[in-house]
Amino acid sequence: AGGVSLRRCSTRVNLEDVNRPVIDRIIRVDHAGEYGANRIYAGQMAVLGRSSVGPVIQQMWNQEKDHLKKFNELMVAYRVRPTVLLPFWNVAGFVLGAGSALLGKKGAMACTVAVEESISDHYNSQIRTLMEEDPEKYKELLQVIKQFRDDEREHHDIGLEHDAEA
């Protein structure tokens, strides 16, 4: 995923130095969001995977898989429990992806644009929060979130290039 190393989070995470409520919330929410995004793309691929837009969706999905993998690692490193809503995200994400894809390429891309715009805004809010907390202390997490935000913006723009507004 871009320039961010997807290696395991450094073992130097000192859990006593972090603002636990803030970090728990950020990592839990981002993990759930990336999980949901994976399920949306899985639903879109189930419907449009063999169409002309299939490779585009697959490319975005591959990045989302990398994002989810990294948040799985961060959950372990920071000892954050996942949301209890994962079973809901599993079904709802797939239904949203497949449902939008049943409307055709434009419907799938409109869904992508809407979701990715929301996620980018959410990541920006988290970046501001961590910068206010202590940018040096949260340097690695900030790097991850900034890179993933940029990836989501790219997905947003890809959706626009593929007739989302139509």
Strand content: under 5%
| Oligomeric category | single chain
How many structurally independent domains?
1
Tell me about the largest β-sheet: none
Instruction: Please count the beta strands (DSSP E, at least 2 residues each).
Output: 0
Describe this structure in words.
It holds the Pfam family COQ7. Keywords: Iron, Membrane, Metal-binding, Monooxygenase, Oxidoreductase, Ubiquinone biosynthesis. This is COQ7 protein. The protein is mainly alpha-helical and 166 residues long. It has one domain (20-164): Alternative oxidase (Ferritin), CATH 1.20.1260. Helix content is 73%, strand content 0%. It has five helices and no strands. The two termini are 29 Å apart.
